[in-house]
Amino acid sequence: MPTYEYRCLDCKRPFEVFITYADYGKVPVVCPRCKSEHVHRRIGRVRIARSEDSRLEELATDFGDPAALEGLEEDPRALGRMMRKMSQELGEEMPPEFDEVVDRLEKGQSPEEIEAALPELSEEGGLADDSGDF
Ligand SMILES: [Zn+2]
Question: Which domain holds residue 26?
């Protein structure tokens, strides 16, 4: 059963729901926290290319702890933990790839290894829809 990620537009919290393909679009999705139906399906992509480093620093600065970034390049696990914590506390829209990246970071993989393992992360333009059977 696929997992769909949503974000509540009322209480701003992200959440996941499990819906069968048959039910998707038919059953109402409500926020598990405040029961609002004012929810938004989360789409988007996260990239961990070097161009994103500045954004990470911005996030850390917003987070009030720029020093938290020090040493993280040598410590993927700490980076993964920080990314997870930031995504949770900021409630930002994070696509499924984000969790994959964080999982790999927490297993000790370097950003370079993760980019090599997930080449789609560094593609521009998002979803490549060349399957033709849409
Ligand atoms: Zn809510």
Answer: 3-41
Cα 93 to chain centroid, rounded:
6
Query: 10 with 36: CB under 8 angstroms?
Result: yes
| CB-based neighbours (< 5 A) of ligand 1, an ion | 8, 10-11, 31, 33-34, 36
Q: Per-residue pLDDT for the chain (134 aa), expressed as one digit of tens each?
A: 567 888 999 999 999 888 787 887 888 899 999 999 999 887 644 444 444 555 566 665 555 555 555 666 678 888 888 778 877 777 767 777 888 888 998 898 888 888 888 877 655 544 444 544 44
Cα(11) to ligand 1 centroid in Å equals 4
Same domain, 57 and 113: yes
